[in-house]
Each structure stands twice: as C-alpha cells, then as structure tokens.
C-alpha cells in the first residue's frame, strides 16, 4: 500500500517545551493507522500539525505527494484531509440535519454556490448518514442538547458527510458508554471499508486500537518510540515501559 | 385556515398597514419613517451579530459612508464639491424632479458601492479579531470614522453639508421619504427572507457556533464573513443615502456616524427581539421604537438613563429576546421535537 | 506640521511633553491595571471603566464645593466606589459573568451610558476641575513647568498601585483572587467562594478607578462624557501589554501618556480622542499580525 500522508522529521516546540521531535510517520492509503502514547506525548500536537492548525518548526508533511505544511486549516480540509476533535465540536445551536447539511464538501464551491438552495440529494445523504450512526430519531433536535456520546457520533457523521480521503480521529471512544464502543468500532471499520476512507486514529483504549488498526505508531515524550503491527506493539517492552512510567 | 394562508394574510396586513399608515396618521409620518429605518438597522445588524456571531458595534460606519458618498455624488453632478461645501448655505440653483430623482438614484447606488468597498477593506483589518476584540475594534473604527470625516474639509469637515433642496412641498417631502425608507426596509426583509433559505445561512450559523470547527470542515470562512459584511453594508449604505437627503443636513458625529445612538440601537433592537432569527429584529425594532418614542416624550431629560437601563435589563435579565423566549416556551411550535420512530423506513411507512 | 519644527527648535519642549505625559500616564496605567484585574479574574470586559473614573472625579469635585481639599476625597472615593462596585456586581454583573463575552461587554456599556447620563443630569455638561491650590514648580531655568499637584498625583498613583499589589500578594483575599483567575473551577472545588471573589474584584476595580478619578480631577479636567476615552485608553493599554503583565501595563500606560501628549501637540488638542482610538486600531492590527504568524486569531 502506498502512503497517503507522509510525515517526515517533523518538530514542533511551544516556547521551550518540545512537543514533537523529528517524528516520521506514514499513513497507508485505505488502511487504519493508529497513534498511541501516554498523556502529553505529543499525539494531538502531531494531529494539529498535519491539519495545519499551527505551523511546524521543521520537517515536511505531504498529502498525496504534495507538501501541505504551509497550508492553512480550511485549505487542507478542502483537499480531503479532515479531523475530529478530542473535545467534540459540533454546531451547537443548529439541529442535527443542519449540522449535516453544512458539512458537505466545499472543495469546488465557488462564490455563488453560497446562494444555492439545499439539494434533495444532500438532505437524503444527511439522513442516511444519521441513520448510519444511529441518530436518525434525534435529527430535529438542537445538536447542543444531545449527550456527549451522541455529539461524538454526530461529529463522526458530519466528517463522513464531507467525503474525506483521510479522517483523523482524536480519541473517538473517549467518553462513550463502554457498551456502545463495539458498535462504534464496527462503524469505523465500515466507514473504512465501504466509503474507502483512510483512518488515522489517536486512541487510549488499547483494546479498541489493537482491534481496529492495522499499523500502530507509539509516541513518548514527543519522540517516536516504536511502530509496527498491533501484535508487535503489544509485546514491545519499550511501549510497555512508557505506559507504566518505567525508565 | 392553513399556515400559508395565515402567512399571506400577515404579509398583506403589513404591506397595507405600511402603505396606509402615513395617510391615517399624518402627524406621525416622521416616526413611522424612522421605524422602517430601525427595522432595516436591526435586520442588517443581525446578519452579522445574530446569524454569524460577529457582534459589531461599528456597523453605523456603513450608514455614514453611504450618506457621504451619496451626498458627494449628488452634489458633484451639479456643483464643484469643494466650493459647495465651503459655502455652508450652498449656491442655490433651481432644479426639478428629474434632476433630484436621478441624482438620488445615483446617490443610492454610490452609497451602496462605497459601503461595500469599505466593508471589504475593513473586513481585511478586523476579521482576525474575535469576540470582544471584534466588538471593541469595530467600535473604535466607528469613532475613528466620525473623527476622520470631521477633519476632511473637502466634504464639509465638522461643519457638515447641506443636502440638495427637495423640489416639492413639505408634505410631499415627508411622504416621499416615508415611502423610500418603507421600500428599502421591505427590500431588505425580502432579500434576507430569501437569503436565509439558502445554503449560505447554514454556513454563517456554523461560523457563529464554532468558527474553528467550520474552518476544520473546509468552509470558506473569510469569504462568508466578507460577503456577509458587504451585504449588510450595502443596505446600510443605501439607507444612509436616503436618510442623508431626508435629514437635509449631513454632519459627521450626530447624523452620519451616530455611534452612541443609532449604532447602539441596532444592537439593542436585535437582542430585544431575539437575535439569529428573521422576525426577531423586526419585532425588537417595533417594540424598541415604541419604548423609545414613549420615553423621549414622557421622560425627557431621563431618556438616556432609561435607554441604558433597557440595555442592562435586556442583556442581564432577558438575554434570549422575545422570540427566543417564545421558542423556549413553545418548542413544539418551532419543530424542536424527538421523532420516536427510530429508522427511516418506519417514517416512510408511516407517511404512506 | 509646524509644531514638529517647534519641537526640534526648542528641545526643552520635548522634555515638558514627556514629563507631562509620564505623569498622566501613571494614572492611565492605574486604571488599566484595574481593568486587567477584572478582565483576568471575572472575564468581564468592563466598558464602564472610564465612567467609574469620572465618578471618582465628581466625588472630589463635590467635596471641594463644600470646602474640603480634594486629596481628602481619595479615601472617600475608594470607599464609596467600592460599595458601588459591589452593589453593581450583585445587581447586574453576576447575571452576565458566566455568559458569552459580548453580553458582559454590552451590559457594562449600558452601565456606562447610565453613569454618564446621571452625572450629566446632576453636574451638567460643563468641564470641571477640583481646585487643589498647589503651586506650579519651575525647573530647567523656567523651561519646564510642572505643577506640584501633578507630582503629588503621580506619587499617589504609585502608592495606590503598591498597596494593591501588596494586597494581591499578601492577603487571603488577594490569594483567592489570584487562584480564581488561574482556574475558577479548581478554586471552587478547593472551597473558595468564587462569587464573593468576583464581587470583591469588581468592587476593588471600581475603588481603583474612583481613586484614579480623584487624581484626574485635580490635575486635568472631568466631564460626564470624558469617561469613554478613559475606557478606550485602558483597553489600549491592556491589549498592548496583555493580561497579568504588571510591568507591561505600567510601561504601556506611561508610553500612552507620552504618546498622547506629543500627538496632541503636533496634531492639535481636538484630535486627542482620535489619537487614542487610532492607537487602539493600530495595536489590534499589530496583535493580529503577531497572532497570524502562529495561525491564531486574537481572542
């Protein structure tokens, strides 16, 4: 499989704190890549660098072969590289359907497209995806009134609505009722298989990530510690030490 | 009676009321004319503050810019501008309806274009500011605009400009401007009613709810913000053009850039009625205008204190506004319901 | 621009403007420190800041009317304004303190209008001064004249600032205020009555403003509507210096005082307000450019 995202020697410091130190990660096209590491190991910083949230100090980030580290968030999003947030973010005063309708891809939208009406296909697709994540019955509710877990599902559906090539998920199962986690894993896998969306996932829940990913990177103290297949990572002594705090 | 019939009746009633009002209450023409202006103010402010969440305290800039642009264009067709403004009395020349109306037409267009131009430029400067910084920055810009125009002698400086004389009688004059503002307010409302049914409104609402998320989803946020401000500005610019002719005398601080009066009224009216809705600002403008006329008549001297109190009570105790309050009280009426049938098939079954 | 050449020809004029600017700038810094305090702790951007200053000024003015020296107004203004601030918090501010930022901005704007108008109704729109009767000192062979009251006001401003800083460092309440400003939720969990802290902070700020107003009324002029430009000045200083940066606030305050004096001398006194507003816009633009390097916005 070829790499759709190539992160090469990326470093990022905030003031004196080095969050990422020359990290190289490749995300395989069509696969599910995992990113793990203890708290504060720089996972979210790496995500933020990839989606253009902040400029990087050194290194290069390529998406489909083109350098994107100089681009800004909306430009990168329009290329088809999308992220969800750790602290779930939805449009809290709009209802679920509207949240979905505005999440259509904006890749080719021109100046006058903003005055277009809502197409029936868009609405159909919105309802379909709401059904896919199990929020169909809540579709007319104001999104801010949903529970945290439901908001997470809505955010996931919104991301799929955008038809991304790659989806960066920041802790998709955090805060979700454990009984619902299996359902979520199934949906993530389905999205990957059926819609062909490459997934790049930060996750703390080991059971989830070992189940989900086909390749895993582990960060610790801002540096890349290990990479490999889930089984290799699980048995890697350095990873175990990092999580248990041994040095 | 069906919903659409009721809506039709409502619009017919407003239209008819608007047309008949100046003939039924001839003593209140000026107040009614101002009411339409207030409705326009509230609606255009709400485009930014209510729908997009960019609470501008400086939208009055576009009103003033439109007013001055229109005045200069109208004068320049007939006189040397610098000479006209330096004689505050104006060299009097008789001219008829055709000249006046065509001049005003050009003036309104010029007012809209100038306002759009300033909105685009100013947008580049202030759209990197969020929340309170945006509010304070735009407030500063409005104050600065007034000071700047006051120092610019070519357009009359602090002394102001006398508008071109109206060719008709006094009664014709007040009727003429009443209907001009009425038409402009209707135009604004109709345009926004159409606009708020477009994809546009979802994008600006998304910016209001979470701009970072909107950017992360690839929405062209800067484009939407600039276009919104330009549209809002164009209506304010046209209103300024008409109001400048109506006032008869243009001056930077009290007439063209009245930051503390009109500039704040527009915010207050939108909040009072319920921001982020189409009808809220209209409702707020009507209620506010009635309160204002009442206090100005009966509490003269204390009217400003009353206004300040109204702002405080409004934002501290009645934040959701009239429409927001209604929405909380009767959610069913606004369609905020849970659909119990769990799947799409079930809904489709039920609808058969 | 003749005045620029005047500055070149008579260098002592520069000294005069600079000294005047620094003396007044200290009071600006005091007012701005109060704003930064309220802003940092309660997250309320107080647009009525300058109007609190004017209230303090009118307290001093009223006392001169009955023959009391305006310096005695300092403790009076502090107590009166503290109570006023506390009452205001309990009536209005507590309703908006946890709401979105525009709400609190607008609420304090409403307060500003009410204060201005009430002052106008009581005292009228004329420009007033609280006569202190101090002499004018001459320095540098008479080239530099500084009225003694300005120096006294400067020293008073320093003492007041010192008291507030010591209070914040040493007292229980000061510590509670600082804790709340860093993390209100954690402070609440640790048993701090944050609502009381907010009320106290708001009241303390009003007291600081009141004291500053007394000083202003002695060395400059007061007028019901002049408050707005003090509010804008405070915003300019805080925006330039950043929150919780006391040395920055002092430097920015002194700098603003000096800049204004030079600006008003070169362009004319009628542009004083325009200069302050212009500075605000310039600083906001600079801050945006700084932030955009990090792909951030000014929040």
The profile of the biggest β sheet of chain C is:
2 strands, antiparallel
Shape of chain C: globular
Which CATH top level class of the largest domain in chain A fits? Alpha Beta
The name of the CATH superfamily of the largest domain in chain A reads P-loop containing nucleotide triphosphate hydrolases
What structural class do helix, strand and pairing data of chain C support?
A: mainly alpha
Of all chain pairs, the largest interface belongs to: A-B, 43 and 36 residues
C-alpha Rg of chain A (nearest Å) = 18 Å
Number of domains of chain A: 2
β-strand percent of chain C reads under 5%
Descriptive account of the structure:
The complex is a heterotrimer of chains A (247), B (352) and C (299). Chain A is an alpha/beta fold. Chain A folds into two domains: 1-80 and 164-179 and 199-247, 3-Layer(aba) Sandwich (Rossmann fold); 89-108 and 117-163. Chain A has helices at residues 43-50, 73-79, 96-101, 120-133, 148-161, 178-194, 206-212, 230-234, 237-244, and strands at residues 3-14, 17-28, 32-36, 58-63, 66-67, 81-83, 166-170, 198-202, 215-220, 223-228. Chain B has one domain. Chain B is 73% helix and 1% strand. The two termini of chain B are 24 Å apart. With 299 residues, chain C is mostly helical. In chain C, helix 3 runs antiparallel to helix 4, helix 6 packs across helix 7 (172-182) and helix 10 packs across helix 11 (246-267). The longest helix of chain C has 32 residues, at 11-42. Classes of the chains: A alpha/beta (247), B mainly alpha (352), C mainly alpha (299).
């Amino acid at each position: 499989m070829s790499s759709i995202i190539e992160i090469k020697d990326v470093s990022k410091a905030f003031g004196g704190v080095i969050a990422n130190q020359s990290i190289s990660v490749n995300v395989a096209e069509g696969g599910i890549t995992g990113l793990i590491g203890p708290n504060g190991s720089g996972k979210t910083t790496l995500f933020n660098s990839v989606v253009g949230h902040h400029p990087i100090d050194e290194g290069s980030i390529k998406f489909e072969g083109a350098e994107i580290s100089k681009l800004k968030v909306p430009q990168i999003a329009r290329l088809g590289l999308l992220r969800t947030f750790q602290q779930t973010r939805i449009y809290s005063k709009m209802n679920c359907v509207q949240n979905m309708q505005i999440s259509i891809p904006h890749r080719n939208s021109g100046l006058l497209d903003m005055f277009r009406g809502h197409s029936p296909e868009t609405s159909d697709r919105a309802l379909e995806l709401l059904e896919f994540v199990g929020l169909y019955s809540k579709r007319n509710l104001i999104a801010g009134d949903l529970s945290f877990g439901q908001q997470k599902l809505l955010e996931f559906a919104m991301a799929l609505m955008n038809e991304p090539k790659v989806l960066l998920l920041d802790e998709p199962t955090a805060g979700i009722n454990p009984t619902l986690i299996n359902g979520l894993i199934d949906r993530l896998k389905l999205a990957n298989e059926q819609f062909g969306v490459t997934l790049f996932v930060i996750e703390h829940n080991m059971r989830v990530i070992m189940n989900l990913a086909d390749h895993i990177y582990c960060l610790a103290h801002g540096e890349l510690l290990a990479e490999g297949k889930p089984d290799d990572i699980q048995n890697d002594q350095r990873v175990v030490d990092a999580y248990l705090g041994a040095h | 009676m069906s919903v659409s019939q009721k809506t039709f009746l409502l619009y017919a009633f407003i239209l008819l009321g608007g047309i008949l009002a100046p003939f039924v209450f001839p003593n209140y023409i000026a107040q009614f004319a101002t009411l339409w202006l207030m409705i326009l103010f509230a609606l255009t402010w709400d485009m930014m503050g209510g729908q997009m969440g960019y609470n501008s305290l400086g939208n009055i800039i576009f009103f003033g810019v439109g007013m001055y642009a229109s005045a200069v264009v109208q004068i320049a067709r007939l006189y040397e501008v610098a000479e006209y403004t330096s004689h505050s009395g104006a060299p009097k020349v008789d001219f008829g309806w055709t000249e006046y109306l065509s001049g005003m037409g050009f003036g309104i267009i010029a007012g809209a274009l100038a306002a759009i131009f300033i909105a685009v430029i100013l947008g580049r400067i202030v759209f990197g500011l969020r929340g309170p910084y945006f509010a304070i920055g735009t407030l500063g810009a409005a104050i600065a605009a007034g000071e700047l125009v006051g120092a610019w002698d070519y357009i009359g400086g602090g002394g102001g400009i006398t508008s071109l004389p109206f060719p008709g009688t006094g009664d014709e004059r007040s009727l003429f401007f009443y209907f001009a503002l009425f038409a402009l307010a209707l135009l604004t409302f109709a345009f926004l009613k159409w606009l708020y049914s477009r994809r546009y409104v979802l994008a600006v609402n998304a910016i209001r709810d979470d701009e970072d998320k909107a950017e992360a989803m690839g929405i062209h946020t800067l484009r939407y913000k600039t276009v919104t401000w330009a549209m809002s500005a164009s209506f304010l610019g046209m209103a300024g053009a008409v109001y400048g002719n109506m006032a008869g005398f243009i001056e930077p601080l009290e007439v063209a850039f009245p930051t503390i009066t009109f500039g704040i009224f527009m915010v207050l009216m939108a909040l009072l009625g319920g921001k982020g809705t189409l009808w809220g600002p209209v409702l707020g403008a009507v209620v506010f205008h009635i309160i204002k006329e009442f206090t100005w008549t009966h509490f003269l001297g204390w009217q400003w204190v009353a206004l300040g109190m109204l702002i405080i009570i409004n934002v501290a105790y009645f934040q959701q506004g009239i429409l927001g309050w209604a929405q909380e009280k009767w959610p069913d009426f606004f369609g905020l319901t849970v659909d119990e049938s769990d799947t799409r098939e079930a809904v489709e079954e039920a609808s058969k | 621009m003749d005045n620029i050449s005047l500055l070149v020809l008579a260098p002592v004029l520069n000294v005069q403007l600079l000294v005047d600017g620094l003396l007044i700038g200290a009071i600006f810094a005091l007012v701005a420190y109060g704003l930064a305090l309220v802003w940092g702790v309660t997250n309320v951007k107080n647009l009525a800041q300058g109007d609190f200053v004017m209230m303090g000024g009118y307290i001093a003015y009223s006392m001169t009317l009955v023959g009391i020296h305006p310096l005695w107004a300092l403790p009076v203004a502090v107590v009166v304004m503290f109570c006023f601030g506390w009452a205001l918090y309990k009536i209005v501010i507590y309703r908006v303190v946890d709401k979105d930022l525009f709400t609190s901005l607008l609420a304090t704007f409403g307060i500003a209008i009410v204060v201005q108008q009430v002052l106008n109704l009581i005292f009228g729109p004329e420009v007033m001064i609280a006569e202190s009767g101090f002499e004018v000192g001459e320095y540098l062979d008479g080239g530099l004249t500084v009225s003694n009251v300005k120096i006294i006001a400067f020293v008073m401003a320093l003492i007041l600032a010192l008291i507030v800083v010591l209070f914040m460092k040493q007292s229980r309440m000061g510590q509670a205020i600082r804790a709340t400003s860093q993390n209100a939720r954690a402070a609440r969990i640790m048993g701090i009555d944050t609502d009381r802290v907010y009320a106290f902070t708001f009241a303390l700020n009003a007291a600081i403003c009141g004291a500053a107003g007394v000083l202003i009324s002695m060395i400059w002029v007061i007028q019901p509507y002049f408050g707005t430009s003090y509010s804008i000045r405070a915003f300019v200083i805080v925006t330039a210096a950043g929150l919780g940066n006391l040395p920055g606030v002092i430097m920015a305050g002194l700098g603003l005082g000096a800049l204004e004096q030079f600006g008003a001398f070169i362009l004319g006194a009628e542009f004083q307000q325009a200069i302050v507003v212009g500075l605000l816009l310039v600083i906001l633009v600079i801050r945006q450019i700084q932030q955009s390097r990090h792909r951030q916005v000014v929040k």
